Amino acid sequence: MTRPIRVAVTGPNGSIGYAILFRIASGELFGKDRPIELRLLDRNTPESRAKLKGTMMELSDCAFPLLTSMTAYNDEYSLFDGAECVFLIGAQPRKDGMDRSDLLRLNGEIFRKQGKALNDRASRDVRVLVVGNPCNTNALIAMRNAPDLSPECFSAMMRLDQNRAMARVAEKLNVPVGGVEQVFVWGNHSNTMYPDIRFLRYNGRRVDDQFDEAWKESFIKNVATRGGQIIKARGASSAASAASAAIDHMRDWILGSQGKVCTMAVPSDGSYGIPRGLVFGFPCLCPGEGRYQIIRNMPMTPEVNARLATTRDELIAEARAVADLMP
Ligand code: NDP
After folding, report:
1. CA 264 – CA 292 distance, rounded (Å)
2. Is the pLDDT of residue 99 over 80?
3. Which of ligand 1's atoms lies nearest the C-alpha of 52?
């Protein structure tokens, strides 16, 4: 039997954590031939520990044949020991009276600590996906605190934004979403993101421009505010769709995207005028074996450049606000 892959997850008690664990353990991430060793962060409070115990009882009761072991750890150094695939989902939610900069700092501390632990203990080939918000800047902080790991080990999740954009396009064209390709999202996972449908294909063919300017504008706004719409509708934030996007992101990264463009927020290589190292959503291709390539030659227009500049500047401001958390 193949050697189990060591997967570490923070925030296993949260809504996304609960939705993702069962999918990972069932084999949806690495396929039905790859056994899984699951490592979960226990936050060491009585409530948190009790809840995690219950989740682990449920995982056990699924009798997943691929789940060879499952362990809770109450410190990150043990959690990440030898980890090959890491989902950083746990983060502090924004509370009443807290502004974005308070949240940045509070969560920045979490990701600084986790970056250091990854640096010391994770596999040198680890693939780390940051989901906890503000995810781009949290990924930047973790990456900068892990100088012995390649920056290419780190990424942040914008796949949910891409999936949302693909779903809106499919609705507009009145077609199944499965054939929608070459939709991706630039920038920060925030309201400044830019979902780009200029190169849209359906079942491999270019789609004639059926979208008028008013629709395009409302589409961009709709994708950026979808998270808020979900909270309003279901009284809770996106959980299953976020977990699903995290699986999509990690699977494409590790196993390959089969020639399909996928959005990944990754350290910039300087393309499109984005400062090197800034964790920015780019259109990428994943050739497999945990590699990705930023697509560098997308044609740009002044309007698209202006949108990229807005989201880039927001990320630069975020990075400045937490500069002291990064060596
Ligand atoms: P929940 O509030 O349901 O869960 C948060 C989790 O974070 C809990 O498991 C909690 O642990 C854990 N946590 C809290 N503080 C810390 C800490 N100091 N260190 C480690 N873990 C901590 O949130 P969700 O699961 O709904 O969302 C998780 C994150 O994902 C949020 O930041 C959210 O904004 C973000 N998100 C990102 C998306 C994206 O597209 N990038 C999309 C949707 C959400 P415990 O319960 O044990 O206290």
Report:
1. 9
2. no
3. 47
Residue from 16, 49, 226, 264 to probe ligand 1 pocket by mutation (most atoms less than 8 Å from CB) = 16
Quick: pLDDT tens for 138-187.
999 999 999 999 999 999 999 999 999 999 999 999 999 999 999 999 99
Torsion angle of alpha carbons 140, 144, 146, 149, nearest 10°?
80
* Active-site residue flag, 189: yes
Q: How far is the CA of 15 from the centre of ligand 1 (A)?
A: 8
The answer to whether the beta carbons of residues 155 and 128 sit under 8 Å apart is yes
Quick: pLDDT tens for 38-51: 999 999 999 999 99
pLDDT at 101: 79
Strand partners of residue 69: 37
CB of 74 closer than 6 angstroms to any ligand 1 atom: no
- Domain segments of the chain as ranges: 5-156, 159-321
> What are the residue ranges of helices labelled H in the chain?
15-26, 46-61, 76-79, 100-121, 135-144, 159-173, 213-234, 240-255, 302-321
Distance (Å, whole) CA 128 – CA 130 = 6
Atom of ligand 1 nearest to the CA of 238: 43
| Class of the domain covering 159-321 | alpha beta
Do 269 and 279 touch, CB atoms closer than 8 A?
no
CATH number of 5-156: 3.40.50.720
Instruction: Identify the band that residue 207 occupies on the pLDDT scale cut at 50, 70 and 90.
Output: confident
In degrees and rounded to multiples of 5, residue 144 shows phi and psi of -70, -20
- How close is the Cα of 198 to the center of ligand 1, in Å? 33
